[in-house]
Write a structure and sequence with these properties.
Helix content: 25-40%
Number of helices: 13
CATH architecture of the domain at 66-376: Alpha-Beta Barrel
Largest sheet: 9 strands, mixed
CATH topology of the domain at 66-376: TIM Barrel
Shape: globular
Radius of gyration: 21 Å
Structural class: alpha/beta
CATH class of the domain at 66-376: Alpha Beta
CATH superfamily of the domain at 66-376: Metal-dependent hydrolases
């Protein structure tokens, strides 16, 4: 397995030269000097001859931006270290330009207690990306009793979700929203976010792909769009009732996008994410029963893909997430209806957005950096402007580089990428975490 791992010692200051700086303040040509975890100087190239450093990173023709932030990753640890570990996931994230990821709680055991939160935090310490565990809304993700949210917020948890399952009971979800709304004082005054996997299980049970023309052709059980949309509708109503924030995970249907758009226009406190696979692939990909295309929620038809792209373009959808979900070959080699859902995403997400979306790079970076950072409550360290004194969590992107996706060359021990052999445009050249180059010229440094 080639994990593109190299060992290069690092100390002291680093200069990033020849780039266009892009952040929430706009774009400008500048060189950047970092050290001791912070940005020391940002100077126009004509004035930057005096930016001397112990190491210089070539960024000619590149964009330097705040590091990317992924709201939705499955790092599998504890419980399924054969598919992924926190360390390998963090390495893959850094190779993809991410400096922070939010780890989902559907591990074994679930992240629903102080002990498991601390375990994931400890596993993430010293990796090439900041790993922030989310925690389950309910104990064991069973949808019945609320997890000890106050205790977990005190440990640094900022997002709660039963991801992999939606909270089926409207009353349990209402109680969770009301409880979370009273925890702001434990979070520096910032809102604690409840994120919802929108799926009404009574409608989706037995379905392994989108219910429609292709499921009929293939003889596979389908999940109707309404299984997602009914829960989106319910939780928009609960956000109105409670005044609490709701974040909608991996939206996949045109109806969901339309409802979130209307909720935002009404001033309700809702945000949403879309995954790269939901705006680049359709249910027709399942035509050969290849389980690499099985995902949850399922891939949808072209009209839904178009709606997601429109939602990303007009600001209805706030963030691009990966829903990075590794699985071993043994698991994915099962029949389509019994194989687990999920795809790799960390190392291909940025390039897919640059290749497939007709959006300027400034908007793509907003969707992948400072906007998700704000939703996750990590915008004190990530997604920050590229300015003196700010944390030096940065990525350097070559938007014109072309490359071919290969699962064998990824950091993840699993190989379930649906983009095998696809040529993409745009690649991360360097990633810096707290001013340390953890990726140099596309090679992980630890």
């Amino acid at each position: 397995m080639n994990t593109r791992l190299a060992v290069v010692p690092h100390s002291g200051t680093v200069a990033i030269k020849g780039a266009t700086v892009v952040d929430s303040n706009g774009s400008r040509q500048a060189d950047v000097l970092v050290g001791d975890g912070r940005i020391i100087a940002v100077q126009a190239a004509d004035d930057a001859a005096d930016l001397t450093a112990e190491r210089t990173l070539d960024a000619s023709g590149c964009v330097v931006a705040p590091g990317l932030v992924d709201l939705h990753v499955h790092l599998r640890q504890p419980g399924r270290e054969d598919a992924e570990t926190v360390e390998t996931g963090a390495r893959g994230a850094a190779l993809g330009g991410f400096t922070a990821v939010i780890a989902m709680p559907n591990t074994t055991p679930a992240i629903d207690s102080a002990a498991v939160v601390r375990e994931v935090q400890d596993l993430g310490a010293g990796t090439c990306c900041d790993v922030y565990p989310s925690a389950a809304i309910t104990l064991g993700r069973r949808g019945e009793e609320l997890a000890p949210m106050a205790e977990l917020v005190r440990l640094g948890v900022r997002m709660f979700t039963d991801d992999g399952a939606g909270v089926q009971s409207a009353m349990v979800m209402r109680r969770a929203l009301e409880y979370a709304s009273g925890l702001d004082h434990l979070n520096g005054g910032a809102a604690v976010v409840l994120a919802q996997h929108c799926e009404v299980e009574e409608l989706s049970v037995g379905g392994c792909m989108h219910e429609g023309e292709w499921s009929s052709r293939l003889g596979l059980g389908g999940q109707p769009a309404e299984a997602e949309e009914l829960m989106v509708m319910r939780d928009i109503a609960l956000a109105r009732l409670t005044g609490s924030r709701v974040h909608f995970q991996h939206l996949s249907t045109a109806g969901s996008v339309a409802m979130v758009r209307a909720a935002k226009q009404a001033g309700l406190p809702v945000t949403a994410e879309a995954t790269t696979h939901h705006f680049t692939l359709t249910d027709a990909c399942c035509a050969d029963y290849d389980t690499v295309f099985k995902v949850h929620p399922p891939l949808r038809p072209e009209a839904d893909v178009a709606a997601l792209r429109s939602g990303l373009a007009d600001g209805t959808i706030d963030a691009i997430a990966t829903d990075h979900a590794p699985h071993t070959s043994d698991d994915k080699d099962k029949p389509f209806d019994s194989a687990p859902p999920g795809m790799l995403g960390l190392e291909t997400a940025l390039a897919l957005a640059l290749t497939e979306l007709d959006l300027p790079i400034e908007q793509i970076l907003a969707l992948m950096s400072w906007q998700p950072a704000a939703i996750a409550g990590v915008d004190d360290r990530h997604g920050r402007p590229v300015a003196p004194g700010e944390p030096a969590n940065l990525c350097v992107i070559d938007p014109s580089a072309t490359w071919t996706v290969s699962g064998e060359e990824m950091a993840c021990p699993s190989r379930n990428t649906p983009y095998e052999g696809r040529q993409l445009k745009g690649r991360v050249r360097h990633t810096l975490l707290a001013s340390e180059p953890v990726v140099i010229n596309g090679e992980a440094q630890r």
